[in-house]
Amino acid sequence: MKKITLVYILFMACLCSCKKKEIYPATTSAKTEIQSFRLVTEAGVNVISSVTIDQKQSLITVLTSPGITLGSLFPSAVVSEGAIVKPAMGAYTDFTKPVQYTVIAGNRQDQQVWTIKVNP
Prior knowledge:
Number of helices: 1
Largest sheet: 5 strands, mixed
Number of domains: 1
CATH topology: Immunoglobulin-like
Shape: elongated
Number of strands: 7
Distance between the termini: 71 Å
CATH class: Mainly Beta
Structural class: mainly beta
Order of helices and strands: HEEEEEEE
């Protein structure tokens, strides 16, 4: 009986400690801006010929250098202080179609969906 009680107590302790962790605010800022954007190839070569960041429409339009394949490019961005991006940038991404990222403000309450359109 003691072993069953001990197993039950350990099980409950584990269950209680496995709760979802809260995401605490990094700042009080409600800003969800993308301030700059970069796109490189697997070889680390910058592919951007021109980039336009439209803060009002949450749209980034990129024109690439000639001959660039859009199927596997590495994006990175500078965002508002304390903000995070989901899905996280920093993974090779297929930009043959527009890609959306959500910028979550430092206060972890405000968020904005951004669309990245890459044109060859």
